[in-house]
């Protein structure tokens, strides 16, 4: 008797590969359909702005509607990393209002006001000199090819950490913090497409978990320093002796959400604010300097002119360019930095969210996000309507008589032609400090070294991530100069 098969009996073999494939395909189709519906129902509308005139009209003429970043995005995820109802907001994440004003004015009026910036000069000078010493130790007379970002990262992170925790901060602690913050930056870049939607949470859960998990090692390093700042506050009679950013946060009182009283910040809040400070005083400044150096290497005539201007300003006093006053005498340096910021903004996009019911939820922009607006900072700085030959690196346009003589990198009330520091009410509060530090490092590098391209040349491709870095870190042939 022949073998009786299931098909002969009129039934399907449960292991039939054709059947299995059909079922899997149907299942995948159903999941994709479900995800598509979920995405449609959870993702807000997105408006992309590339035109400077449109950016100006949205951020200035209708400023009240554009005071918050989108609730539900990556920054909100960072603000809600603690389980439970409480948010641990930073200046970037908190909704526009009294809490935001307290945090922001603590940074601007309390920490980086002009007299405080003057007091930071010794820290800045040490960091600049460390960078120059590090680069001088290697090259012989023929020069040496170095990966510039490694040197910049080291020097600028140390400066940010000491501004944050005081100049006595131990070197091993600085380096341990740099490693964690480096991991955090990479985790943020991996999460750059996260839009805050439910679907985004599902598809990015692994990256989000990694990012939020990094607050544990950061906390292990930072919590003892917060405790030390609290002890200093209890012991010190004179607040001027406690000049680090962390001290200002320990002193700060913010409005209570529930009544009209004020309260101190908790350790978790300070930890988040410290992470924000380290991030904003590091990666974007490194990116700004790296892009500017790359442009100077690609345009040797600009490098030569800038060095000549720096030498004239130094006029026998090698330390002259290590101060804000000395830098004021080199307008061409400012023009070079602005031209670099226009073409290669370290933060390539700025977002705003239009929310429902913001008034009912003043402490966290918790109203439903109706619209996400993305200002493409890079496109705005290269827009044909605002710039002649926008793709050409031409710092002279920012000098007197140039087409951009009056253009400021700060958001303009009358017009926007570039917005490397954002615009409207939430523009970057650290822009003056950032420009000062970028110029200090650049002046010292130009004063002390000739910079030439390596044999492989310079690749100006951008990453386009949160921090818009050079895709291939800048390699430069560095040759020490004999100072005039
Ligand atoms: C070259 C360096 C820097 C660049 C390119 C840069 C760029 C930006 C941009 C584009 C924004 C978003 C603005 C907006 O949404 O309209 C921003 C926000 C911010 N930046 Fe910077 N920044 C730099 C340095 C700094 C420094 C040195 C600090 C601190 C001292 C800082 C602190 C902040 C803070 C706290 C915010 C959030 C402001 C708010 O929401 O009110 N930044 N920055």
Automatic annotation (TrEMBL):
PROSITE patterns: CYTOCHROME_P450
Keywords: Heme, Iron, Membrane, Metal-binding, Monooxygenase, Oxidoreductase, Transmembrane, Transmembrane helix
InterPro entries the record matches: Cyt_P450, Cyt_P450_CS, Cyt_P450_E_grp-I, Cyt_P450_sf, Plant_metabolite_P450s
Cofactor (UniProt): heme
Pfam (any one): p450
Entry keyword Cell wall biogenesis/degradation: no
The keyword Transit peptide is annotated on this UniProt entry: no
Annotated Gene3D superfamilies: Cytochrome P450
One of the record's GO molecular function terms: heme binding
Membrane topology term: Single-pass membrane protein
One Gene Ontology CC term in the entry: membrane
Subcellular localization(s) per the UniProt record: Membrane
Binding, heme: 428
Top-level lineage group: Eukaryota
Family: Belongs to the cytochrome P450 family.
Protein name, UniProt field: Cytochrome P450
Originating organism: Lolium multiflorum (Italian ryegrass)
Highest classification ranks of the organism: Eukaryota, Viridiplantae, Streptophyta, Embryophyta, Tracheophyta
């Amino acid at each position: 008797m022949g073998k009786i098969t299931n098909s002969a009996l009129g039934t399907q073999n449960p292991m039939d590969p054709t059947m299995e494939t059909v079922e899997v395909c149907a299942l995948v189709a159903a999941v994709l359909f479900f995800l598509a519906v979920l995405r449609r129902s959870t993702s807000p509308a997105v408006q992309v702005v590339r035109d400077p005139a449109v950016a100006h009209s949205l951020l200035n003429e209708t400023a009240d509607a554009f005071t918050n970043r989108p609730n539900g995005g990556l920054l909100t995820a960072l603000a809600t990393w603690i389980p439970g109802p409480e948010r641990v907001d930073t200046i970037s994440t908190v909704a526009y209002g009294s809490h935001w004003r307290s945090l922001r004015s603590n940074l601007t009026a309390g920490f980086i006001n002009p007299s405080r910036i003057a007091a930071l000069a010794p820290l800045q000078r040490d960091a600049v000199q460390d960078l120059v010493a590090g680069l001088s130790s290697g090259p012989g007379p023929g020069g040496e090819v170095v990966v510039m970002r490694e040197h910049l990262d080291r020097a600028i992170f140390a400066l940010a950490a000491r501004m944050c925790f005081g100049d006595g901060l131990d070197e091993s602690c600085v380096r341990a913090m740099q490693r964690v913050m480096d991991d955090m930056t990479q985790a943020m870049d991996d999460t750059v497409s996260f839009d805050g939607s439910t679907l985004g949470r599902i598809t990015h859960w692994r990256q989000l978990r990694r990012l939020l998990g990094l607050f544990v090692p950061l906390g292990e390093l930072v919590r003892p320093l917060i405790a030390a700042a609290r002890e200093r506050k209890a012991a010190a009679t004179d607040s001027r002796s406690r000049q680090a950013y962390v001290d200002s946060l320990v002193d700060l009182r913010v409005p209570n959400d529930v009544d009209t009283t004020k309260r101190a910040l908790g350790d978790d809040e300070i930890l988040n604010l410290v992470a924000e400070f380290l991030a904003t005083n590091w990666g974007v400044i490194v990116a700004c300097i790296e892009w500017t150096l790359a442009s100077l290497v690609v345009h040797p005539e600009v490098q030569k002119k800038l060095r000549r201007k720096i030498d004239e300003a130094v006029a026998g006093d090698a330390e002259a360019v290590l101060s804000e006053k000395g830098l004021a005498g080199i307008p061409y340096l400012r023009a070079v930095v602005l031209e670099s910021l226009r073409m290669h903004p370290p933060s390539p996009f700025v977002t705003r969210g239009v929310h429902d019911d913001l008034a009912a939820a003043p402490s966290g922009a918790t109203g439903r996000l109706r619209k996400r607006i993305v200002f493409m900072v890079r496109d705005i700085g290269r827009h044909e309507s605002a710039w002649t030959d926008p793709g050409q690196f031409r710092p002279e346009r920012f000098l007197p008589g140039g087409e951009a003589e009056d253009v400021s990198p700060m958001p303009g009330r009358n017009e926007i032609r570039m917005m490397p520091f954002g615009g409207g009410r939430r523009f970057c509060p650290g822009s003056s400090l950032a420009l000062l530090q970028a110029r200090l490092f650049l002046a010292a590098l130009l004063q002390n070294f000739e910079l030439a391209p390596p044999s492989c040349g310079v690749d100006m491709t951008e990453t386009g991530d949160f921090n818009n870095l050079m895709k291939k870190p800048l390699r430069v042939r560095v040759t020490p100069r004999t100072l005039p």
